Amino acid sequence: MDHTLEQAKRLDAEDKLGPFRDKFIIPRKLPSPCIYFTGNSLGLQPVLTREYLNQELEAWADYGVEGHFLGRHPWFHYHKLFPEKIAKLVGAQVDEVVVMNTLTANLHFLMVSFYRPNSSRYRILTEGGNFPSDYYALETQAKFHGFDFEDAVLELFPREGEDHLRTEDILQAIMDCGDSLALVMMSGVNYYTGQKFQMEEITRTAHSVGALAGFDLAHAIGNVELKLHEWNVDFAVWCSYKYLNSGPGGPGGLYIHERHGNDPETPRFAGWWGHDEEERFQMKKGYIPMKGAPGWQLSNAQVFGMAAHLASLDLFEEAGIENLIDKSKKMIAFLNGLLENVNLSVNGNSFKVLTPEGVDDRGCQFSMVIEKNGKKVFEYLSKEGVVADWREPDVIRIAPVPFYNTFQDLYMFSQLFKKALEDVN
C-alpha cells in the first residue's frame, strides 16, 4: 500500500463510513484543523446528543413526575432501551447485560458476587500496569475479606526486554496458581499499551482450575470484537464515555453470564430496581431478583446521562460494529506504514510503538515511547492541533476512531509527528 496523501484521499473516498464523521462534533475551540485522537479517553459528542437530552428535558417540563409514564420514552422503562443494543457490542444475550452505575462501582458490586474467597482459594490474578482504579478495587476487596494485598493480588508483567504479556505466560500463571486462584480479573484491552488480551483462552484456563474470569472492558467495548457469551466469560464491566461517546462520567454497564444471572442464589447486593418488576411497587420485604443481569440493578435509570448514551448507541446500530472494526483494522495498517516511514526518515530522535502489531492483539490505540524529549514532542503536537494523550514517563497515546477519524487525519498526523521529532531539541 502507498502511504501518501493521495492514497489517504482515495481511502477516504472509498470509505462507506465516511459520512458518520459529520454526525459528530469536532471540538470547535481547539486549534484548527483539529486532529482528535483521544477517543480512548473521551469520545466526541454525537450531533444527536443535544436532541436526545432536550427531549427528556422537555418531557420533564411538560409532564413533571408523569414523565415516568408519558412521552416518547417513559422513564419508568428507560433502562429497557439499552440491552439489545449493548448485547450486540459485547456478544451477549440480551438478558446478560444491563446499563447502570459507573465502571468501578459495578466492579465492586460484581466482586461481591464473584470474589468469594476462603482460606485456601483467595488469590486474584491481574496484569501488571492495570488501570489504578481497578488496582484499588482489587486491593480493597482483598483487604475487606481479611487478606494481605501483596499475597492475594498477583500481578503479571512482560518478560524482560518485552513490552507485552505473552498469552502462554498468562495461561501458565493461572495453572501455577491452581487451587489457590479465586478470580482472574484483567482488562480486555490494557489502557497503557493497548494490548488486547485473549479473553476466551484466559477464561477457559481459569475455569479449568476452578476459578472465575472477569474483565474490565473500558478500552475494549466499541473498539474490538467481543463474544462474551460464546467465550463463557463469567462477568465484565465497562464505562461508556470512551469509544461509546456517551459524555464525561457517562453511565457504566455490566455483563453476567446466564448461568450466574439466572440463578437467584448468586450472591449480590440488592436494590429495588433489581427486584421482580411485577412486584416492585408493592413495597414488600424479601428480595426476588429479576432474571439475568437486570437482577443486579439498584436504582431507577439516570435518564439524562442515559439519553446521551442512547444517542451514541443508535449510531452504533446504524453503522454496525463489524463495519467499524473492519475500518479500524484498515486504519491501523495504514498508520503502521506511515509510522514506519517516519522512523526511517527521522534523524536524531526515534520512537517505538508499544502496542502489539497483530490485529488480533490490539484495538485502534497506538502507544508510542519517545526516545528523547517526549513531553516536548507531545506539546509540539498539541500546539499544531493534535489532541493526543501523554502518559509518564515517555509515552504518547493516540486512538484513531473509525467513527470520526479519517485516513487524511492519519497522514497529517504522521507529517506533524515527523516534524516534531526533527525540530524538538
Word description of this protein:
This protein has helices at 5-14, 48-63, 83-90, 103-114, 132-144, 149-152, 167-177, 199-208, 228-231, 258-261, 303-319, 321-345, 374-383, 407-423; strands at 24-25, 35-36, 45-46, 97-99, 123-127, 153-156, 181-187, 212-216, 235-238, 253-256, 351-353, 366-370, 386-387, 389-391, 395-398. Strand 14 and strand 15 form a beta hairpin. Helix 1 (5-14) runs antiparallel to helix 14, helix 4 (103-114) runs parallel beside helix 5 and helix 13 packs across helix 14. The protein has two domains: 5-30 and 320-423, Aspartate Aminotransferase, domain 1, CATH 3.90.1150.10; 53-319, Type I PLP-dependent aspartate aminotransferase-like (Major domain) (Aspartate Aminotransferase, domain 2). By secondary structure, the protein is α/β, with parallel strands linked by helices. It has 14 helices and 15 strands.
